């Protein structure tokens, strides 16, 4: 997905939140946003939000001298989500898919406060999915030998873990790869986060090879691309994975996400806020 | 006033609102924000928000092919303010000063919706000024031969007109100049707006010579600078005039404004939202 007009101001607002999380020093915050203003000049009409955003954000991290401003935000998200998911351990496969989509609400980019998670999860469980290709997903999983699961944010990963446990029970022969980011980038889960959460019991935890939101092909590792090419089904969580994969039109990919921002909702032709399980066309 | 760290994202958000007001065409909106991203790369730690903002905004106007995206916003602001001010024609000089400060609430830059004006004015009339140098202002006016009044936004100018009528009654010997912008820039009043509102009955309506928010000295006309140098008292309305004048530390200047954003409040050491009549130090 190429940038929409709203992506510029959204990235600028994220830069402001980043410098606020990174330091209390006003001069350093100013240095951070001035660096952002230089880096954001590189955007053009073909820029992909997840990729140009990550480049800008990492530049801001360097300018303010903080390599992981989201450390605390991610820890809180993980702790709260781990607790909440305990109440859902006995759900069925379909409910765990819905929970995995709902877990995508934890997103710094849209200013989400993880403290709201418990009440939000309960509320969203009452909603229907606006697009629901889960029958196709489960059919494909029943035929598949390997699944690649692309994670998104911290917190959300505990909902993914529950869904993956249910997948493993339902499709015991499936070989499962679970991918996360190579290093900290906003509130995305890293390989370390997956290992700590226990994904190693489910399958092979791998890195995209990139410290970038989503799956920026030209920046991923050869190892990752080999797993990607060899997978029969790919589950891609969240907006960043959608942004970087949508133009490949790869029918192996199922997007599980909440359409949190206007550009994503416009691109998918759904109302903003919709919960979605969509097979790539 | 030099930029604070919040000014970058604020300018980006204003650019988004500008393209939304300027056109319904999504491609053109995208072109506008991409142009903004290039122009905003020129900011540095010494940039003055009103000046770099105006440069960026005019570039966006050109990119989207709309020379005055605020035409309707300004017309609505003027019409509503003119009606509201009619209810206050019999107030005294001090109340008219307070109303002139309250009128400064009409401000696109902070996302103000002019439809709220009537109820907001009534509410704010109950507030006290947080800094009130009006005794000094009136003393200086009683000694002055010439007053230069720097206007700010459309809508607000009808509150200025009331205040200036009361000034003329109280200080009948005073020569009064009223300045506005040379051409349309966001929702600032232009010379044409002042003439249409009837400022010609009060004094000499003059242009700053610049199509820029505030009073950017190096960009103003020689004629304007002559009036500025010769004035005994200068009343400067709003944030843009404060931003461009504050570093001159000119004791002839009295700032009348509402501290609408965090940087201005921080710079002045007052709570955000404060109503202020402050003599320049």
Question: Could you walk me through the main structural features you see in this protein, from its secondary elements to its overall organization?
Answer:
Two copies of one chain form a homodimer. The first copy, chain A, has 281 residues and is of the alpha/beta class. Chain A has two domains: 7-64, Helicase, Ruva Protein, domain 3 (Orthogonal Bundle), CATH 1.10.8; 80-279, Uncharacterised protein PF01937, DUF89, domain 3 (Rossmann fold), CATH 3.40.50.10880. Helices cover 49% and strands 12% of the residues of chain A. Chain A has twelve helices and seven strands. Chain A has helices at residues 6-22, 26-39, 49-64, 71-86, 93-102, 117-125, 134-143, 156-170, 191-197, 222-230, 238-245, 262-268; strands spanning 131-132, 146-150, 175-180, 204-207, 233-237, 253-258, 275-279. Chain A has a seven-stranded mixed sheet with strand order 1-7-6-5-2-3-4, sandwiched between helices. In chain A, helix 1 packs antiparallel against helix 2, helix 1 (6-22) packs parallel to helix 3 (49-64) and helix 2 runs antiparallel to helix 3. The longest helix of chain A has 17 residues, at 6-22. The model of chain A has no long low-confidence stretch (mean pLDDT 96). The interface between A and B is medium-sized, with 28 and 28 residues.
């Amino acid at each position: 997905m190429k940038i929409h007009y709203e992506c510029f101001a959204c990235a600028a607002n994220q830069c402001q939140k980043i410098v606020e999380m990174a330091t209390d020093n006003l001069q350093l915050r100013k240095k951070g946003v001035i660096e952002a203003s230089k880096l954001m000049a590189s955007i053009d009409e073909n820029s992909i939000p997840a990729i140009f955003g990550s480049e800008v954000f990492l530049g801001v991290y360097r300018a303010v001298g903080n390599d992981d401003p989201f450390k605390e935000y991610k820890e809180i998200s993980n702790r709260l989500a781990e607790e909440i998911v305990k109440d859902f351990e006995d759900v069925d496969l379909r409910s765990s898919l819905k929970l995995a989509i709902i877990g995508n609400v934890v997103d710094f980019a849209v200013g989400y406060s993880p403290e709201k998670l418990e009440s939000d999860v309960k509320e969203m469980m009452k909603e229907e999915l606006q697009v629901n290709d889960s029958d196709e997903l489960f059919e494909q999983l029943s035929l598949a030998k390997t699944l690649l699961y692309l994670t998104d944010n911290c917190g959300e990963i505990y909902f993914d873990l529950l869904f993956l446990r249910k997948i493993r029970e339902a499709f015991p022969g499936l070989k499962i790869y679970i991918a996360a980011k190579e290093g900290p980038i906003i509130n995305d889960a890293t390989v370390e986060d997956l290992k700590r959460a226990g994904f190693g019991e489910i399958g092979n935890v791998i890195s995209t090879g990139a410290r970038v939101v989503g799956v920026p092909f030209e920046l991923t590792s050869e190892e990752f691309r080999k797993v990607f090419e060899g997978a029969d089904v790919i589950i891609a969580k969240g907006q960043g994975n959608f942004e970087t994969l949508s133009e490949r039109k790869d029918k192996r990919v199922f997007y599980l996400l909440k359409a949190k921002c206007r550009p994503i909702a416009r691109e998918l032709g759904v109302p903003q806020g919709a919960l979605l399980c969509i097979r790539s066309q």
